[in-house]
Amino acid sequence: MLYKRLEDDRKEMNSFCIDDLVPKDHLVRKIEKAINFDFIYDLVESYKRYNRYVRT
Q1: 33 falls in which pLDDT band (50, 70, 90)?
Q2: Alpha-carbon torsion 15, 18, 19, 22, what sign?
Q3: Torsion of CA 45, 50, 51, 55, to 10 degrees
């Protein structure tokens, strides 16, 4: 083995927020403010195999 893992490595948990990683002036944020994408949920409703995800 080139690398021996320590048992404690597998128990480590990290948490982060995607919003914190995207800059405030990023193009995606500007598009999100300008366009309401809620209509997509209605368009893809019939393609869902199981309706287990609830839109809030």
Answers
A1: very high
A2: positive
A3: -70
Q: Is the pLDDT of residue 56 over 70?
A: no
Name the residue type at position 36: N
| CB-CB contact of 31 with 37 (8 Å) | no
- DSSP designation for 49: S
State the Cα–Cα distance between residues 9 and 35, nearest whole angstrom.
42
Tokens 């995800």 appear where? 53
- Sorted by where each begins, the domain ranges of the chain are 17-47
Task: Name the token pair of 44.
Answer: 């893809």
